[in-house]
Automatic annotation (TrEMBL):
UniProt protein name: Flavin-dependent thymidylate synthase
Binding site for dUMP: 109-112, 120-124, 196, 223
One function term, GO molecular function aspect: thymidylate synthase (FAD) activity
Homology family: Belongs to the thymidylate synthase ThyX family.
UniProt xrefs under InterPro entries: Thymidylate_synthase_ThyX (IPR003669), Thymidylate_synthase_ThyX_sf (IPR036098)
Pfam entry (one): Thy1
Length: 301
């Protein structure tokens, strides 16, 4: 379970402490505050704090007072204009702080996005729990034959069972040794900062991750994409649902222009124009490499 009974009681207590405020609040985000959204087998995402809403984006763009000088319809239109023309600063006026529990190997992918403030649970001071990510059988897959960083067909039968048993056995053996090394019963015990080196990459860690909306949307564009690794994509999907409730106008524009839209090269745009004129365009006469042409065809559907 992602949360223990004690942790759930703490969440309930936090949600019970309502405070009056003069700052702008997002009703959609308020319902998410402190609540843990389960991800994977032991992980979660929860909102600890946030600042701003759709109106804050418009306010920053217009540098105006209060909730803005235009109607709600114009606010949505302005946000779509800002997203369409890649204006980033107004979206940076909104921020969110998340508490995330995730496997270490997912955290190492996540931390490559160097545009956030992060504070991670320290295994130098504390003892990590015996919690490991063990994939569901349907997520065990062979190496892709066309993508060096992707998956192919799912493993089945005895091979899948053997791999799952190896993952479980190795993780628990490493944790047994970790406990044995740090124990102070009849020995000095190895320092926690050294003992942690023996733990596997599928053990869970936790961190607070604070980021502005502009950089969060960039993270989501990459990690909620169908080509992203499953284990980080499910976290991104959970965050997408939160953002959709927090800033609905901005998220809808993001879906249209970033997730659902496409950016093509000048060469590809020329090919589209030639196609519209009735010309037969092939990879050989397109000016594109085979890889570029394949991606172009995928974009056109």
């Amino acid at each position: 379970m992602p949360l223990t009974p004690d942790q759930q009681a703490e969440v309930d207590a936090q949600r019970a402490q309502a405070q009056p405020t003069l700052r702008a609040v997002s009703p959609g985000m308020e319902k998410h505050l402190y609540t843990a959204i389960p991800v994977l087998d032991h992980g979660f995402v929860r909102v600890i704090d946030y600042m701003g809403d759709d109106a804050a984006i418009c306010q920053a763009a217009r540098v105006s007072y209060g909730k803005g000088t235009k109607s709600v319809q114009n606010d949505e239109g302005l946000i779509r204009y800002l997203m369409r023309h890649w204006h980033s600063t107004p979206f940076e006026m909104c921020e969110v702080k998340l508490h995330v529990k995730l496997p270490v190997f997912v955290a190492r992918q996540w931390i490559r996005h160097r545009t956030a403030n992060v504070n991670e649970y320290s295994a130098r001071y504390s003892i990590l729990d015996r919690e490991f990510y063990i994939p569901a059988p349907e997520h065990l897959a062979a190496q892709s034959v066309v993508n060096n960083q992707g998956r192919g067909a799912a493993l089945e039968g005895e091979e899948a069972a053997r791999v799952l048993e190896i993952l479980k056995t190795d993780a628990n053996r490493a944790y047994d040794h970790y406990e044995a090394m740090i124990s102070q019963e009849g020995q000095l015990g190895l320092a926690r900062e050294l003992a942690r080196m023996n733990l596997p990459a599928n053990i869970y860690t936790q961190w607070y991750w604070k980021v502005d909306l502009h950089n969060l949307l960039h993270f989501l564009r990459l990690r909620a994409d169908a080509h992203a690794q499953y284990e980080i994509r499910v976290y991104a999907d959970a965050i997408c649902n939160v953002v959709a409730d927090w800033v609905p106008f901005a998220y809808k524009a993001f879906e249209d222009y970033r997730m659902g839209g496409a950016t093509i090269s000048a060469t590809a745009l020329d090919c589209v124009r030639r196609m519209l004129k009735g010309e037969e365009v092939t990879q050989e006469n397109s000016g594109m490499s085979k890889g570029e042409w394949r991606e172009f065809m995928d974009t056109l559907g």
